Amino acid sequence: MSKSIPVTVFTGFLGAGKTTILLALLAQIPSEYNVVVLKNEFGDVKVDSQLLGNSTGTTSDQTDGEPVKAGNSIKVTEMLNGCLCCVLVGQMKNALLDIKEKFNPDRIIIETSGSAFPAPIAWQIRQLQPDGFTLDAIITVIDCVNFTGYEDTSYTAKMQAKYTDVILLNKHELISERQFDLVLDHVYELNEETPKIKCNGTQGVSPSLIFGIDTKLFQLASDGSTIPETTEMGGSTDWLKDRNHHANEVDLVQVMYPPPTDPSECGADQCNDEHHQHHHHQHQPHQNKLDTPALFTKESLETFLAPLPKDSFYRIKGTIRMKDDEGASTVVIINWAFGRYTLTPVPDNDKSVIYQITVMGVDLRGWVARLATGFGFSNTLDLLKESSVIKFTPAGK
């Protein structure tokens, strides 16, 4: 009988610091212990997977669940544009089965998008128990700096704190003891019994602390036929039936320059911008009319980012071509969350790319034109939308 592969799920709201903690965790894993990381990127732009690949010495690529073999014990694969808990559940099953067949790892770590609801993911993994997978634990990362802000408005953030085996309290060192006590009060109101652990994202947590928990949550019916009305603990399973919860909370703005010449590359089959839907055939003609945006410097990027309100903008992440201190062109990954950001240099593999950016937040419709200007575009917003340089997808779509 083949071994059962433990699956650890990392969840947490946008910008909580999941990838940073995971990077530090992977650095502590012995080289003989084989791990596959399955990333779920929200939007069409892969960013965190590239950070994981660069930092761990592995390779990563968009594979729709196709694992990428690397030179050491850690592999990274990813699934783009959607939430593992709903639109991609079938793909998740295929991805896990493919990972098992190709690599037979000692463990699989799933890092969900910030909008993912952990309970349906856990239920799906439970259904795969006959196929050789065991849900080891759900780990929720909470951003202590911002939790008491978005926790009031985000249903998903509340559920991430409720349906979990361990809560990692990240960024606690950035707030006062009084503020931390307030965060704890909010967390305890949502989840009194789950262990809560302070952690510094860059230092991470010990694998021995979060591996081998063998979750007692989500002990649901496993025949795979229907979703039960209650868990074995007696709780409601309504959360399993809310297939579009993540889209109800987050607006999405994507900035791509040069724009994709193939409509499918910009997610046209899932495009929800009314104006954009009727112009897919015009991508290539409009590209010839586009002006090349001016490159950011560190100073101009800071000037652009500084006034963005944290109550509207949750995340800005992607690749940006900018000028370094000597004026030379360089490519960096920007990872902006609630007013704080990092810039990570990456190899310049495509000299034509200036922007591959995903912006996430709420009430962003009124910001689209200002974002276009801020990113250095001189063309009209209509032209930028028609050419798919700018794509706005409202919450609820």
Keyword list:
7-stranded parallel β-sheet, 397 residues, single chain, alpha/beta, 6-stranded antiparallel β-sheet
SS element count, helices: 13
The average pLDDT is 74
SS-derived structural category: alpha/beta
How many strand elements? Answer: 13
Oligomeric composition of the shown chains = single chain
Strands of the widest sheet, in order across it, are 3-2-4-1-5-6-7
What portion of residues is helical? 25-40%
Distance between the termini: 44 Å
Give the overall shape.
globular
Gyration radius, to the nearest Å?
21 Å
Biggest sheet statistics: 7 strands, parallel
Uncertain stretches of 5 or more adjacent residues: 55-72, 81-88, 216-247, 263-284
Secondary-structure element sequence?
Answer: EHEHEHEHEHHEHEHEHHHEEEEHHE
Layout: helices, strands, pairs:
Elements: E1 5-12, H1 18-26, E2 35-41, H2 48-56, E3 74-80, H3 89-103, E4 107-111, H4 118-127, E5 133-143, H5 147-150, H6 155-162, E6 166-170, H7 177-190, E7 196-199, H8 207-210, E8 251-257, H9 274-277, H10 283-287, H11 298-305, E9 313-323, E10 329-337, E11 340-345, E12 355-361, H12 368-374, H13 381-386, E13 390-393
Parallel strand pairs: 1-4, 1-5, 2-3, 2-4, 5-6, 6-7
Antiparallel strand pairs: 8-12, 8-13, 9-10, 9-12, 10-11
Helix pairs in contact: 1-2
If you had to describe this structure to a student in words, what would you say it looks like?
There is one protein chain. The protein is of the alpha/beta class and 397 residues long. The chain has 13 helices and 13 strands. The strands form two sheets. A seven-stranded parallel β-sheet has the order 3-2-4-1-5-6-7, sandwiched between helices. It has a six-stranded antiparallel β-sheet with strand order 11-10-9-12-8-13. A hairpin with a 5-residue loop joins strand 9 (313-323) and strand 10. Helix 1 (18-26) runs parallel beside helix 2. The radius of gyration is 21 Å and the shape is globular. The model is unreliable at 55-72, 81-88, 216-247 and 263-284 (pLDDT under 50).
